[in-house]
Write a structure and sequence with these properties.
12% strand; 8 helices; alpha/beta
Length: 246
């Protein structure tokens, strides 16, 4: 099912992080015997908790029939810097976004936000172990002009999934459903900037990994997936797996 990851992860971790590979293998066996579905909104370079859901569940539904919500991770992410967590927000075209279908929300490209975000990312992670390894492809998303927020975040998420090696079946919703079938876990708006560090989630633990500024500050949990990718590289899949204790 997710067998193509086994060789690359094993080769990488052999004689290095054996515990991660053992946990990863057990997790694969568990997933093969269970069918689980989740519905969640699309987020911008979402937190590690979000990507742990994309790994844990067999079927992921991305909500594309909702209305935009302010103060969410739909247009912002948190990265790690020498001063602590830094929030990067994508400016939107003026309008009543709260009442607007998510697929119609436009980004404000007059604000040069892509240059600002990439400069912040490069400043924060330029010396990270795997920055140069991924920066060449990632920067392309900050050079291409996107009209719609959803399209930008979708393309960026597809890149992250491919890079990490997550091959879960992910589909966009075709209609909005307030009430879901019992087989689908409704996780919409459960991971948000206000309480993402405090939300009770029995299927997620902020498993520690080596961060760039750990000599200056304590571990910063549940940052954007970008932090884990730049700090752990090809081991990201295994660390995500360690974050799902089920």
């Amino acid at each position: 099912m997710k067998g193509q990851h086994t060789t690359s992860i094993k080769d990488l971790l052999f004689g290095n992080v054996n515990e991660l590979f053992i946990h990863y293998s057990k997790h694969m066996e568990m997933n093969q015997s269970a069918s689980k579905e989740i519905l969640i909104e699309l987020q911008y370079l979402a937190p590690i908790q979000y990507y742990s859901k994309l790994l844990l569940f067999d079927q992921v539904w991305i909500e594309q029939q909702e209305h935009y919500r302010k103060r969410s991770f739909r247009n912002r992410c948190n990265i790690g810097t020498a001063q602590g967590s830094l929030s990067l927000s994508i400016p939107l075209k003026k309008g009543k976004h709260e009442q607007m279908p998510i697929r119609e929300v436009r980004v404000d490209n007059d604000a040069s936000w892509q240059k600002i975000h990439w400069r912040s990312i490069r400043t924060a992670y330029g010396k990270a172990p795997f920055f140069e390894f991924y920066a060449g492809e990632l920067i392309e998303f900050y050079q291409k002009k996107y009209e719609f927020l959803f399209d930008f975040s979708w393309d960026l998420q597809e890149f992250m999934l491919t890079t990490i090696g997550i091959d879960t079946r992910i589909q966009k919703t075709t209609e909005f459903c307030k009430q879901l079938p019992n087989k689908i876990l409704d996780f919409r708006n459960k991971i948000n900037p206000r309480d993402y560090l405090k939300s009770k989630d029995p299927n997620f633990v902020a498993y520690p990994y080596s961060q760039l500024f750990e000599d200056r500050q304590s571990f910063l949990p549940n940052l954007s997936i970008l932090d884990m990718l730049f700090c752990t590289g090809p081991e990201t899949y295994a660390y995500l797996d360690m974050s799902t204790p089920t």
